[in-house]
Design brief:
The chain is of the alpha+beta class. It is 63% helix and 9% strand. The chain contains 26 helices and 13 strands. The strands form 4 sheets. A 5-stranded antiparallel beta sheet has the order 2-3-1-5-4, with helices on both faces. Strands 9-10-8-11 form a 4-stranded antiparallel beta sheet, sandwiched between helices. Strands 6-13 form a two-stranded antiparallel ribbon. Helix 7 runs parallel beside helix 9 and helix 8 packs antiparallel against helix 9.
C-alpha cells in the first residue's frame, strides 16, 4: 500500500520536474541571482565569538561590570613601546598621555585608563620599556568592530618617541573574522578546480562532472542568503561560513554523484530519458532525501546548546543540506532531462584509454572497478571475525588519546604568529606581571561599609591559588575585585578558584567572571545539554534507518559503527592540536587544550556525514535483499555498486575539508582536517571493512523485526527498490559471480567506465 502510494507520488514528482525543464532551470537561475544579492555582505554581519553560554553567572557579571564599571572590562589595548627609552621617560610619558586623552574623546569609547594615569605595575612591562593604555569599546561585536576599523589606523604606528600596536579582545576577534574570510576565499579557489578534476576522473564526462558543482554552488549561495536573513534576528558566527562551503560542495557532490550514476545506469540499460529519470528519482532520489534528513537531524541537534557559536552551525548546516537536496532533486533532474544521453559527452579520458589501448565506450561494470569491490567484500566476509575484531581494536586504539583531553577557551593563539593583535597579547602575556586582563573579577552587589569590603578582600586573598587581589573599586551600591590566580589563566587551578570564590560566603551578593569562569560555565552548559543532543541524534537516526531497512538491528549497528568511525578524528584532535604534535608542519600554536565547543561541533557534523554514506550503502543492500532474499549476495551487491561511489565522494569531500583546513586560524584548521580524517576513515574502513564483516556475522538475523514493527514498516517505510515477491530461498554468494547481480541488473551494469 505504502509502496504503491510512494510510487504514485514519485511519478507525479517526476512529471513535475521534467515537464518544463527549461523553465525550471531559468527559475533556478533567477532565484540564485537573487540569493547572491540577498547574501552579499553576510560575513560583515557575523560575529567571531559565541563560545560563552549567555544565561550563566559569568555572562551576567560581565554585563553588569560593562555597564557599571567599564574600566574593569577593557577590550581595546594600546601597547606603547618606548624603544630604548623607559616608559617613565618624560617624552614617552607626554606622548602616552596625549594618546590617552585623544582616545578618551573618541565616540563609543569608555573606561580609558593607562599606566601613566594609574601607575599600576600590572600595566607596565617588567623591563620598563612597554606599557598599556586600556579602554572599552561599547556596543555589540559588529558595532565594536566598526569603531575599531575607524580608530585603529589613527593610533597604530609611530607617534613621536613611541611605537603603538593595537590589541585586546575586540582586535583579536576582528582580525580573526578578517582572516577567516580571506582563508575561505582561498579554500574555495583551491577546492573548486581540484574537485572538478576529481569529478572528471570519476565520471569521465566533463558535462556530468559540472552538474555536481552547479548543485553545490546553488546550495552555498542560497545558504548565504538564509544566513543573511538570520543575522537580522540573532547572532551568527563567521565560522559557520566554512561549514556552508564544505557541506555545500561535499553533500551536493554526494547527492549528484548518486543521482547521475543511477541515471546513467538506467540509460545504459536501454531506458529512455524520462523513464530513466523516473527510476532514478524513485530509487536514488528517495535515498538522497532520506540521507538529507539524517544529516540535517545531526546538525539540528546543535540547536539545543545555548552558545551561538554552535547554534550558527545548525543554522548553516540545516540550510545547506536541505538546499543541496532540493537542488539535486529538482534542478538536477531538469538538467538531465535536457541532456539525456549527452550527459556522457566530452569524455576527457578517451585519450588516456587510447594510450592504454582500451576500448572507449561502455564497459561492463563487472569487468571494471565494480568487480574489485565485489571480490573485496567476499574476502572480508570470508574472514569476517578477523576483520571485525582487528578493525574495531584499531579504531579504539586510535581514539585513546581523547581520554586525555583538556578543555579550554579560544584566545589570540588561534591567529597566525604575525597577526598584530596576537603579537600584542603575547607581549602582554610574556612581558607583563600578572598578565593584565587574564584574571577573575568578583562583583559585589549590595551596599556595604568599607570595612566589610576590606574584610571580604582579605578572605579572597586567603583562598588557595590566589596570587594577588586588587580593589575593591566601588560605585553606588556595588563594587568589584580583580583576582589574579596562580598558574595558567584558564588552568585547572584557576577553574577551582572560580568555584571557591562562588562558594565563599559574603555579606552581599557576589558573582564571578573572567576567562576561567566563562570556561567553567561553558563546560557546565555543554554537559547539561549534551545528553539531549546525543539523544536526539540517536533516536531520530534509529527511527530513520528503521524506516529505510525495516530492521531493528541495522539501526543499532549504524549508530555504533558511526561512533567508531569518529574515534580516529577525536584521537587525532588531542594528539595533534592539544599535544602539539605536527604543529610545525601544520603551522599552528598548541595551547595545551581544546576549545570546549569544538568536539561537539565535530561530532555532529562527522556523525551526520557518516550517516550520509551509511544510507547510500544500506539502501542498495536493502534493494537487492528485497529482490533476491539472499543476505550475503545483497551485501556484496551493495558494496560493489556503492563502494567506488562512496570512496570517490569521500575523497572529494575530504579535499574540500582539507582546503578549509589550510586556514591560518587554528580552530578552522582543526575542524577541516579532523572532519576530513573522519570522512576518509568512515568510507575506507568502516563502510569497506566493518559493515560487511558485521553483517556477515549477524547473518539473516540482521533483517529481524517483531511483527508489529514489520507491519509498521510495510505501511510507512521507505526503500530504494520496488516491492518484490517473497524470496524462494537463499542463494549462496560464490566469489564474484554471486556479486554480478544476475538478471536485469546485468543490463543496468553497462555504464560508462568509472561512472
Amino acid at each position: 500500500m505504502s509502496e504503491v502510494n510512494s510510487s504514485e507520488h514519485v511519478g507525479r514528482w517526476t512529471r513535475f520536474v521534467t515537464a518544463r525543464p527549461r523553465l525550471a532551470l531559468l527559475a533556478a537561475l533567477v532565484i540564485t541571482a537573487l540569493a547572491v544579492f540577498a547574501g552579499s555582505g553576510v560575513a560583515d554581519r557575523m560575529g567571531s565569538g559565541g563560545w560563552e553560554a549567555p544565561d550563566t553567572e559569568s555572562t551576567y557579571t560581565t554585563q553588569v561590570l560593562e555597564r557599571e564599571f567599564p574600566a574593569s572590562q577593557p577590550n581595546l589595548l594600546l601597547l606603547i613601546d618606548g624603544g630604548a627609552a623607559s616608559v617613565d621617560d618624560p617624552a614617552v610619558a607626554a606622548e602616552a598621555d596625549r594618546l590617552t586623552e585623544r582616545l578618551s574623546a573618541e565616540p563609543g569609547i569608555a573606561g580609558v585608563g593607562s599606566y601613566w594615569r594609574t601607575k599600576s605595575p600590572a600595566l607596565r612591562s617588567t623591563d620598563g620599556h612597554e606599557a598599556i593604555v586600556a579602554a572599552r569599546i561599547e556596543g555589540d561585536e559588529k558595532g565594536a568592530g566598526e569603531i575599531l576599523d575607524r580608530i585603529a589606523p589613527a593610533y597604530r604606528g609611530t607617534h613621536g618617541p613611541v611605537e603603538v600596536s593595537v590589541g585586546g579582545p575586540v582586535a583579536v576577534r576582528h582580525e580573526m573574522q578578517s582572516i577567516i574570510q580571506e582563508d575561505l576565499l582561498r579554500a574555495e579557489l583551491i577546492a573548486l578546480p581540484v574537485t572538478l578534476v576529481l569529478l572528471v576522473m570519476v565520471f569521465g564526462s566533463a558535462i556530468a562532472a559540472l552538474l555536481p558543482l552547479g548543485v553545490g554552488i546553488v546550495a552555498i549561495l542560497g545558504t548565504n542568503a538564509v544566513l543573511r536573513g538570520i543575522t537580522e534576528f540573532t547572532d551568527v558566527s563567521v565560522f559557520a561560513q566554512n561549514l556552508t562551503t564544505a557541506l555545500g560542495l561535499g553533500l551536493a557532490i554526494d547527492y549528484a554523484l548518486f543521482i547521475v550514476r543511477r541515471f546513467r545506469e538506467e540509460l545504459a540499460a536501454g531506458a529512455d530519458t524520462r523513464a530513466a529519470i523516473g527510476t532514478t528519482l524513485r530509487t536514488a532520489g528517495r535515498t538522497v532525501l532520506f540521507s538529507a534528513l539524517t544529516v540535517a537531524v545531526s546538525l539540528a541537534a546543535m540547536m539545543v546548546f545555548p552558545q551561538y557559536f554552535l547554534r550558527s552551525f545548525a543554522y548553516a548546516g540545516i540550510a545547506v543540506v536541505l538546499l543541496a537536496a532540493a537542488a539535486a532533486l529538482i534542478l538536477l533532474p531538469a538538467a538531465l532531462m535536457l541532456l539525456g544521453p549527452r550527459v556522457n559527452s566530452l569524455d576527457l579520458r578517451r585519450l588516456l584509454r587510447r594510450r592504454g589501448k582500451t576500448a572507449s565506450g561502455p564497459v561492463e561494470a563487472g569487468e571494471g572497478p565494480g568487480r574489485g569491490w565485489a571480490r573485496f567484500s567476499v574476502l572480508v566476509m570470508r574472514r569476517a571475525p578477523v576483520f571485525a575484531v582487528v578493525t574495531t581494536v584499531g579504531l579504539v586504539l586510535l581514539g585513546l588519546p581523547f581520554l586525555g583531553v583538556k578543555f579550554g577557551t579560544a584566545d589570540d593563539r588561534q591567529l597566525p604568529a604575525t597577526a598584530e593583535s596576537r603579537v600584542v597579547q603575547e607581549h602582554i602575556r610574556d612581558g607583563f606581571p600578572g598578565s593584565p586582563g587574564g584574571g577573575l573579577e568578583v562583583l559585589a552587589e549590595g551596599a556595604a561599609s568599607p570595612d566589610r569590603y576590606a574584610a571580604f578582600r582579605e578572605r579572597i586573598a586567603a583562598l588557595p591559588g590566589v596570587q594577588r587581589v586588587d580593589g575593591p573599586v566601588t560605585a553606588g551600591g556595588s563594587a568589584y575585585y580583580d583576582v589574579l590566580p596562580e598558574g595558567e589563566t584558564v588552568g585547572q587551578g584557576a577553574q577551582d578558584l572560580v568555584r571557591e570564590l562562588r562558594a565563599e560566603p559574603a555579606p552581599f551578593d557576589t558573582s564571578v567572571t573572567g576567562a576561567a569562569a566563562v570556561l567553567v560555565d561553558s563546560k557546565a552548559a555543554i554537559a547539561d545539554r549534551l545528553p539531549w543532543a546525543v539523544g536526539i541524534i540517536v533516536v531520530v537516526t534509529l527511527l530513520l534507518v528503521f524506516l529505510l531497512t525495516g530492521s531493528v538491528l541495522i539501526p543499532l549497528q549504524a549508530v555504533v559503527l558511526n561512533a567508531l568511525s569518529l574515534t580516529a578524528m577525536f584521537g587525532a584532535v588531542v594528539w595533534v592540536f592539544q599535544d602539539g604534535n605536527l604543529s610545525g608542519v601544520l603551522s599552528f600554536t598548541s595551547t595545551g587544550d581544546i576549545e570546549t565547543t569544538l568536539p561537539v561541533l565535530m561530532f555532529c557534523v562527522a556523525f551526520g556525514l557518516s550517516m550520509d554514506y551509511g544510507v547510500f550503502l544500506l539502501s542498495r543492500i536493502k534493494e537487492e535483499y528485497d529482490r533476491t532474499g539472499d543476505h550475503e549476495h545483497a551485501v556484496t551487491f551493495g558494496l560493489r555498486h556503492t563502494g567506488g561511489l562512496i570512496t570517490a565522494a569521500a575523497v572529494i569531500l575530504a579535499v574540500v575539508m582539507v582546503a578549509i583546513g589550510t586556514s591560518r586560524v587554528t580552530n578552522t584548521k582543526m575542524l577541516g582536517l579532523g572532519i576530513a580524517l573522519a570522512v576518509l576513515m568512515d568510507a575506507m574502513v568502516v563502510r569497506s571493512l566493518l559493515v560487511p564483516a558485521v553483517m556477515k556475522l549477524m547473518g539473516r538475523v540482521t533483517w529481524w523485526a517483531p511483527a508489529p514493527l514489520r507491519a509498521f514498516h510495510q505501511r510507512f517505510g521507505l526503500s530504494e527498490g520496488e516491492p518484490a515477491p517473497a524470496p524462494a530461498g537463499d542463494r549462496e554468494a560464490e566469489g564474484t559471480e554471486g556479486a554480478d547481480g544476475e538478471g536485469g541488473d546485468r543490463a543496468r551494469d553497462k555504464v560508462t567506465a568509472g561512472a
